[in-house]
Structure formats: structure tokens, C-alpha cells
Specification:
- By secondary structure, this protein is α+β, with helices and mostly antiparallel strands.
- The chain has a domain at 23-84: SH3 Domains (SH3 type barrels, Roll).
- Helices cover 15% and strands 33% of the residues.
- The chain contains 1 helix and 6 strands; from the N terminus they run H-E-E-E-E-E-E.
- The strands form 2 sheets. It has a 4-stranded antiparallel β-sheet, with no helix packed on it.
- A hairpin with an 8-residue loop joins strand 2 (37-40) and strand 3 (49-53).
- The longest helix has 15 residues, at 2-16.
Amino acid sequence: MRSLLSALLIGAAVVTGASVALPSAADAAVTRTTSHLNMRFGPAAHYRRVTTIPPGQSIHVVGCTGNWCAVIWRRHQGYVNARYLSTHKTMIVSPLYAFGQ
């Protein structure tokens, strides 16, 4: 799953000419959802929904930029709004620079 997300980020960087800082395994953090949370295909509410994550679920945060975080939950990967993540258990993660920067 992580390799697919990395490939997508690298592809986006090639298309946009941006540099990508891919996080290592040590950069990822684990946190929990605070309510039902829509996982999306991109870092904005207009992207299609991948799935809905129930409250209290443990998810792996790969990186964040603005209000959106790239995450992995079970067999799904996508983006969630950071406002619906538990912050007291989240460590600092590497920012993702492929979001149009």
C-alpha cells in the first residue's frame, strides 16, 4: 500500500515539477479518528470518497499539509481532514510536498 502512495506522489511531482520528500517508516505516526471520517482520493472535500472510517479507529498518518493528511487504514490509503484526528497521540510527521506545491 505504501508503495502505491509513494508512486502516486512521485508521479504527481514529475507532472508538476515539484520535489517530493517521501517519509521513512520512522516518520509515520499512528493516531485515532474522533468521528466517522471520509477518506478521499485527494486532499480536498471535492475528491471522491474511498471509504468511511468509523470513530476510534487507529490509522497510520504518512504526512500532512494544511488540513489534510495522507493516511493508511486497513487496506485503504487516501487523504483525511486532520481536524477529525486525535491530536494527543499524533507525533510530528513529515510534510508532503506533492500537493500542488
